[in-house]
Amino acid sequence: CDAVYAAWRGFFKTVLVNRDGRGQVTGFFMAGDLLGMDGICSARHSDTAVALEDSVVCVMPCVLVEPMAREVPALQRGLHAALSREIAQSQWAMVMLGSMHADERMASFLLELSARLQSRGFSGCDLQLRMTRADIGSYLGLSLETVSRLFTLFQRNGLVRVHQKQVQILNPGALARILQRGVQPSPALPLPAPGRLAAARRQPREKFGPIVRA
Known about the structure:
Order of helices and strands: EEEEHEEHHHEHHEEHH
Strand order of the largest sheet: 4-1-6
Largest sheet: 3 strands, antiparallel
Structural class: alpha+beta
Number of helices: 8
Strand content: 15-25%
Distance between the termini: 49 Å
């Protein structure tokens, strides 16, 4: 591991290259998130971060992170919290991929992104998607066609309004009720997933459950 990166501005995706050479999106990160935490323990980064817009990061060399954390208790607590969130979110991702239908995955994705934006002081209803629909599909284990169908279905049922990469959440309660058919979502956190989840993402459950409206 050469460094840990704190995102100051911008939006990123992390990509893991599978053994067959295909790229798998494993997470999305925004300002306030830490990237490269996996390298602290393994001494190497398992995936690659790609900026999806003009971005700024603070580079923290790994050789300095540990001594700095000992001297600055707040930094140490922040690193421990970030590692804990990654573990919890990896477990949540495994549950999502193993038990959720396609519409439940999409509802979870939109609600989680909304909550993350709200926690940073932004609107949780007006989403500007920096990632492509192909990126979303790769992350959720769904085909591009399924992602497009879900956006159309959600819009037709009054849950969202979609215009290119602008998504307005009109009925968060209905999205939450879709999610309640499966497991409950974890708190609003980054969603980096380890490499072992890549195989599960290639086996999507693309069955749609009934859309729930208010």
